[in-house]
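COURSE: Structural Biology Practicum
ASSIGNMENT: Worksheet 4, Part C
STUDENT ID: 0417
INSTRUCTIONS: Below are two proteins. For each, the amino acid sequence is given first, followed by its structure token string. Answer the questions at the end about the second protein only.

PROTEIN I
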Amino acid sequence: MKAETGTTFNRLEASLQAMAREVGAKVSAVLIISGHWEESEFSLSSNPYPSMLYDYSGFPEHTYHIQYSAPGSPELAHRVQTMLQAAGVPAMLDPIRGFDHGTFSVMGAAFPKADVPIVQMSLKSDFDPQAHLEVGHLLAPLRDQGVLIIGSGLSYHNLRRFGPDAKAPSRAFDLWLQRALVTSTPQERYHKLVHWEEAPSSRLAHPREDHLLPLMVVAGAAQEDVATCVYHEDDFFGAICVSSFRFGAFAIE
């Protein structure tokens, strides 16, 4: 799971490795919202022993043999389902779903011992930003129960514009994202994320918002907590501006 020395992923890997230290307290489980899973209703992986799901094509052969052996948590999956259903939000359990690369690529760097139980949560395929923010708000109590909530996506995700042409739109959208998350009040943040399509270069950065919506869930769960940019590159793949954010105080400065 380790990135090769000298690759473009080294800074990203380092930021993920810092995650466990920054959380500080013992993480009892992880709920990860994957930009690679969409269902008609919010769905939760409930297999105690998730398989691997290599949901990509054309990658090097070794990427089809990656193993990440962390356990699932049927108990957490049921708890999340109950929380959502109690608020009138339909939620399904999926006992088949394995770890897709939105999960194992993140968790392999952040928790390489694979000793933290993981539940994946899908996006809702209508891609309603407000619905994803509100679901995050419902999940906020999990944070006080030792559950780390992670949104797995990419702040710029336009695979047809992933070279030098991405330089200007990725920077324009990243600047808006920094302002929306870091320098806005929680109320302003909520409004801006609901209306994210009004951001500069929004649809150039995200022709489909599958990689942006995991952020909405996490921002909803953050409630009044402030955001900090914990990872930023201006030259990801040589040209692209990308960032990651954390909500709440750091345990280790």
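PROTEIN II
(use this one for the questions)
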Amino acid sequence: MAFDLPKLPYAYDALEPHIDARTMEIHHTKHHNGYTTKLNSAIEGTDLASKSIDDILKNLDMSNTAVRNNGGGFYNHSLFWEIMSPSGGGEPSGALADAINSAFGSFEGFKDKFSSAAGSRFGSGWAWLCVHKGGKVEICSTPNQDNPIMPDTGCGGQPILGLDVWEHAYYLNYQNKRPEYIEAFFNVINWEKVSELYKANK
């Protein structure tokens, strides 16, 4: 199957002032679209062409850099758009809040650790909140377009929240001030969607 570029569930300017419209448009139509096109080219005519993106990445030969980079880019951004919302921000509730409090002591403890994972990732990459079977949550980060469902990335579990810390995700608005971008991200997190993903994967 060929993969399609997902439509955004909101307008390009919907996350302003936290993430600007021009960055969103370039990020979606250029970067994510590029990963989608190159992934389709990389799997065309192979046994991967009939598989879901989850199956491709969970069983990935990590030396296949075309599928690793572009499959990761496709998957990561597809999740990224979903877990943001113009009406986002605040804190999680219910089972997800309980899991976060259990793992990190408090929401502020989670926020500090997640911000550290995103801020300390050298170069390009992602910060993740993942859930393991049984409901325990974990924070980790990966380089480039790697993600926790790939083999041997040093992360584990199913990603339910991800933050893109490639410079293309924030440079137009924040330049080299990654910490300000990370702080702004908390104002657009769609905790309802993250909670939905937590319940589906715990």
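ANSWER KEY EXCERPT:
Q1: The beta strands are 125-131, 137-143, 158-164.
Q2: The first strand starts at residue 125 and ends at 131.
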